[in-house]
Amino acid sequence: MRFSLLFTAIAAFASAFAADSTNPGTCSTIRVRREIRQLSAQERAAFFAAIWQLNEGPRPTIWDSYAQLHSEAGMLVHRSPRLFPFHRRLLLDLEERLDAILPGFALPYWDWTLDARDPASSMIFSPTRDWFGSQGTCVRDGGFANFGVWYTESGVQPHCLSRRFDRGAQMSPIFPPSAIANIIVNNQDYDLFRFMIETGPHNLLHRAMGGDMGTMVAPNDPIFFLHHAFVDRLWSEWQALPGRFARYDGSAGGQAVSLQDALPHYGDTVRSMLNITELCYRYAPSGTEVSRRLTANQEVFN
Ligand SMILES: [Cu+2]
Predict the structure, then answer these.
(1) I need a labelling partner for 63 at 20 to 30 A (CA). Which of 37, 48, 55, 300 fits?
(2) 281 pLDDT tier (thresholds 50, 70, 90)
């Protein structure tokens, strides 16, 4: 027990050090975040078990704390340029927690453009134990059946993880790869790009899934982190285009933002969140970036 606590502390220290952006080149490993369908059933089982573990013990659990933090940061980090850097930091926070349980673990993402036409039929929502289960006031199937959560938007209100698709058995169609490509290519301005992603596909997916995902305590649902990992990947793809890497503009609370701004709760600067390579991770392709490139080329040549 004592050893495992010590080990956890060392692992936490090591990953915090590796993630220090002022020391580029200190990554002991680069985490490769894969599309959820690229994980084996065993890998998903280990991931799910680690999440259940973070939700054990006296309330509020570590898992509960993400919903609380996200809800508290609320309007400071949504409808704001801070959307991308704040959620990038939040994902790293969970990834470090998971690393203590599963050393070297990289968060998976959900490329929902692969399920754009009929998201409710996505494999993600399969009822078997190695997927995330379907919908319900209480989700009763899949790997998070009867998953207990603590917060709602109005405070402490213990309940069971819930999802309520916006069209009954169906969910509204999400953006296909070509639409995402257009948003990435056509919006050079940071805050315009952020606005297009946030109010477009980002909000749409939250609303279409409903239940906990439709609220500010969305991190109650493990899918939240997969959704935001994909949103994070889209920001990194946007950043990879010429002249865009460190662009950050717009205003928050009536004030122009800057790269020196400290992120709510975490205190890290926005600048420290820019470079995912320095943050020691990258995204494995899921195939849709190919169509994004093709669309991008059409934009250039048409
Ligand atoms: Cu959010």
Answers:
(1) 37
(2) very high
